[in-house]
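Project standup — Tuesday

K.O.: blocked on the structure for the chain from last sprint. Re-posting the sequence here as requested.
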Amino acid sequence: MKKDFLSLYDLERADFEAVFGKADKVKKMLKAGVSHTPLAGKTLGMIFDKSSTRTRISFEVGIYQLGGMALFLNNRDTQVGRGEDISDTARVMSRYLDAVVIRTYSQSFVEDFARYATIPVINGLTDEQHPCQILSDLFTIKEKKGRYEGLKVAYVGDGNNVANSWIDAAARLPIRLGLACPEKYEPAPNILERGTKKAEGGITLYRNPADAVKDADVIYTDVWTSMGQEAEKEERKKIFSGYQVNGELLSRARKDAIVMHCLPAHRGEEITDDVIGGSHSVVIDQAENRLHVQKAVMEILILGG
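H.V.: unblocked you, prediction finished:
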């Protein structure tokens, strides 16, 4: 039976470990110059309605390194943009392709596509979720800290798709999650409520970032204005001005805390240049790990294990 990857909440603990184990393997093989092409002859469809740097490059390069090829399609390249029923598109693409990654606005679009597709569907990003990002971030934390169990992750900023996926991660794994978000900019209420009930390590919503980062092992932030919110940029800069990850905020976390950002970063806004470029930052490492983790996800889903 085919499996999809639509949100972290869909994964069990064993699924996380399987991905991390495979990602570690393919990363070491790539660094050692060892060819690993289990997806020779396989094709990944990439339906992108949103612009992308890391997601597009990591998936295209990843499928190529695994021996397969990618077919990139934006909304103008498919009949979906002209009103074709999503069920027809999903069924037909399932006859041509071996898997599909979708980066779009609506979570329901990805879920509907997966419902009708007979091939694995991967959520590359929606306005509600960013599971590929947080999965690779957890892999990075495990690399840097040796574990994720029992660690405290402090997310500071907008309660966006990244924050939602962190909540889903905390609902499935034994991590502590502190979220610092301004009033009216919290994560999705249904996701927060579900996560709070399920999280073994606990999820706490703060207004004061200093409270959220106290004793944190990981400080995480994202842009204050996501794609599609450009008209709100100036207003958001005022509202989020007290939520900047800077040296003072970093000093309130554990001495060996790492700083993460999913990129792109607006230096001087949500994070200062000295912090994102400083010794605590693992931002470039986490960006690299998108490649290795997504290779693991594609290999597992396409080959069925």
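K.O.: great, moving the ticket to review. The first strand starts at residue 43 and ends at 48. Residues 133-286 form a domain with the Rossmann fold fold (CATH 3.40.50.1370).
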